[in-house]
Request: fold
Amino acid sequence: MFSIDEADPTPLYAQLERAIRVAIATGRLQPGDKLPTVRRLAVDLRINANTVAKVYGELERSGAVATRRGVGTFVEDLARLAGVNSDCEQQLIALADRFLAGAAALGYSAPEAIALVTTRCKEMKQENSDA
Reply:
């Protein structure tokens, strides 16, 4: 379900966290879906279980997943949580601001950057429907 590129200079925990967040954002993981156990995912990816546990902990602190002791770790309904927690919306606005500032630094206008993101979302949706 997730992959790690050992040749990528990005730390393994950051790659895994990004992969899980992308799976949630693109709908590959739906609210209520159960994530693999820490041990199972560590074995599958051939990484340390502490790395997986660190990622699950970060995702839980951000509200993306919830762990139920003895049952497992599940994807949360972020749309529902965002309505309840306006802090999430503020964080998303800050993320959008950083994205647009970064795009401008690269020489792209806001509409150009948004068009690129829209295209990328469609590509990711298509990739997920093909899988």
Q: What stands out?
A: The chain has a mean pLDDT of 87.
